[in-house]
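Lecture notes, part 5. Sequence design as translation. It can be helpful to think of inverse folding as translation between two languages: the language of shapes and the language of residues. The source text, in structure tokens, appears below.
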């Protein structure tokens, strides 16, 4: 019996231990689960927005408009006047010094205006009748004056020197207002080829049918009146109008055995033709004519100058209208040659 009690006690003790062990394990497990649950939080993942930083706006005063406004006020308050210029009675040729300077005076209501910037524009180069200009900026002195003496010219030209207040911007309206205030003075350089020994002309009038008739006398006379020793070309064969100026040049050399190179410095080849059919009415006629000329150096046959012009004239008869158109053309082209060749 004693043995049986011991076994029973052991079994009870073991069972109690087992129960305690299970209860303890369960309790630890529950505590762990609860602790983990309390330590975790739900987090919603979001993409952070990008922050764009922009510079603060800078307030800049529009000084350009202010300058333009001040410039307009200046233009309305001043007057430009050329008080001295080229002595046009004295002939100047390319390469020669100007005998005197150009002097410009700027004044306002109070008298001479100092420190006004003036742009001076003058002929600098040319290609036939296309002229390019140089410029310089000068400020008026205490007497309101600027003095401009050009360098010796490299070209022959009949044009002008232009003086105008220097624009404060390139705004077209401002530039135009500056030009509107401009004043000019003659700038005249006579061609070196107009000096002795002069030259020869192969210049003919053409009839309405386009056929050459006679030498144009008016142009020849115009050149002579300008002090140029001019005569007609020794070649009178009008078929050279169907050839080049080089061919005409060679014919002149051959005909004179080369002597023409010493007795003439230039050769002019040209024509006066009807540009349009004559318009005749009951009491009038209108004629439009054109002239084209080429000038060459008699020593080298280099082309010196080319020009052309057109004139229209109306008169009671066709003949009168034609003569008027020819004269107007001859006057215009003769002057172009004297100051362009």
């Amino acid at each position: 019996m004693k043995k049986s009690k011991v076994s029973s006690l052991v079994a009870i003790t073991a069972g109690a231990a087992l129960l305690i062990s299970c209860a303890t394990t369960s309790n630890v497990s529950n505590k762990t689960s609860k602790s983990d649950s309390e330590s975790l939080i739900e987090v919603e993942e979001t993409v952070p927005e990008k922050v764009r930083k922009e510079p603060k706006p800078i307030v800049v005063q529009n000084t350009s408009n202010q300058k333009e406004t001040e410039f307009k006020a200046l233009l309305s308050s001043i007057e430009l006047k050329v008080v001295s210029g080229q002595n046009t009675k004295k002939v100047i040729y390319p390469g020669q010094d100007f005998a005197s300077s150009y002097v410009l005076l700027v004044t306002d209501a109070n008298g001479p205006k100092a420190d006004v910037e003036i742009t001076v524009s003058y002929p600098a180069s040319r290609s036939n009748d296309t002229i390019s200009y140089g410029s310089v900026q000068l400020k008026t002195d205490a007497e309101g004056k600027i003095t401009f003496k050009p360098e010796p010219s490299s070209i022959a030209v009949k044009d002008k020197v232009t003086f105008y207040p220097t624009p404060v911007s390139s705004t077209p309206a401002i530039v135009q207002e500056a030009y509107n205030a401009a004043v000019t003075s003659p700038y005249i350089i006579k061609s070196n080829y107009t000096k002795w020994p002069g030259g020869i002309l192969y210049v003919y009038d053409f009839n309405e049918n386009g056929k050459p008739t006679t030498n144009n006398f008016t142009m020849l006379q115009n050149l002579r009146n300008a002090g140029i020793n001019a005569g007609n070309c020794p070649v009178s064969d009008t078929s050279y109008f169907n050839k080049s100026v080089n061919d005409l040049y060679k014919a002149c050399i051959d005909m004179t055995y080369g002597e023409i190179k010493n007795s003439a410095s230039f050769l002019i080849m040209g024509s006066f033709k009807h540009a349009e059919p004559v318009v005749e009415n009951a009491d009038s006629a209108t004629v439009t004519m054109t002239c084209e000329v080429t000038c060459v150096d008699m020593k080298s046959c280099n082309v010196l100058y080319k020009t052309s012009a057109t004139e229209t004239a109306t008169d009671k008869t066709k003949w009168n209208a034609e003569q008027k158109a020819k004269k107007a053309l001859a006057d215009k082209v003769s002057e172009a040659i004297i100051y362009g060749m």
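The translated text above is only one of many valid answers, since several sequences can fold into similar shapes. The longest strand covers residues 285-297.
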